[in-house]
Amino acid sequence: MSGDFTQEWGSERARVADQAAMRLNSAPAADGGGGDGGTFASTPAQKRSAANTIETELEPNTKKATEYADESTNTAVKGFDGWDAAAGLKKVADTWDRQVKVLMGRLGSEKGSLRGASGLFVQNDLGTGDGFRPLGSQSKLNGL
Question: Which helix (H) or strand (E) element contains residue 130?
Answer without folding.
Answer: helix 84-141
